[in-house]
Amino acid sequence: MSTHLNVVTSGTGPTVLFVHGLDSDADVWSPVIDLLQDHTCVAVDLPGHGESPVSDDPAAYEREALLTDLDDVIATLDSPVVLVGHSLGGYLGMAHAMSRPGAIAAMVLVSTGPGFRDPKARDSWNERVRENAKDYGIPEIAAAVAFHVDAMVIDRMTELTMPLALVIGDGDKAYLGANDYMEKKLPHAERTTVEGARHYVMRSHPESVAAAVRSMTAAAGRS
Fold it and tell me: Which residue blocks in 100-200 are alpha helix, DSSP H?
């Protein structure tokens, strides 16, 4: 199954693919993209988000379907690409890099976590998503993009050997510990902890995210 994702493109230069998180859309990246017009910035809307279609098939929101959707976008780009993901978008970027080696040259993970190894923690997360789905600004069925079904990403993190940056706000309490863990597992990662920022650091401090993007395009030889 594949959803034809809405794509917003601007700028000219090395290609960077932006993937948003739950209950968001491509526009969340606008402050960063405004600083990166010397790059070809490609921002997607995930299924049921922004201008992308809403499917009534729950399978359209499963991880593998989302990765296939990203495959279709990446196939149209000058690859390998530098992927920038926020929260769920970063998780999907890691899953894509693990399951499709070579497609992603470098990554910037913004306010991202690697999922859950403990099934009880995973179930608790999924239940919170279900409970909050009615309050999101997206169709309730689309909240399923955030469900976790296994520990694949957290168990295989050390496979991520490409240039990688972590950007996290010092006020993002829910994800600081996850970034500490990822930094330990990925010692080559460049970490930026942004003072005064919370979960949407790309909106409050776009210059910090843009700097990480420039560092990763250079490290991947894409600048």
Answer: 119-132, 152-155, 173-185
* pLDDT bracket for residue 2 (50, 70, 90): confident
Domain span holding position 15? 7-219
Tally of CB atoms within 10 A around 118: 10
What are the structure tokens assigned to 168, written together?
């996290």
Q: State pTM to two decimals.
A: 0.97
Domain contains 141: yes
Residue 2 lies in a domain: no
Domain count, the chain: 1
For residue 221, name the pLDDT band (cuts at 50, 70, 90).
confident
Q: Minimal CA–CA distance to 159: which of 108, 202, 104?
A: 104
pLDDT at residue 124 tops 90: yes
CATH number reported for the structural domain that contains residue 90 in this entry: 3.40.50.1820
In a domain, 103, yes or no: yes
Which parts of the chain are beta strand (E)? 7-10, 15-19, 40-44, 81-86, 104-110, 164-169, 190-194
88 within some domain:
yes
Maximum alpha-carbon separation in the chain: 46
Closest residue by Cα to residue 58 from 119, 149, 150: 149
Integer Cα distance of 37 and 138 in angstroms: 29
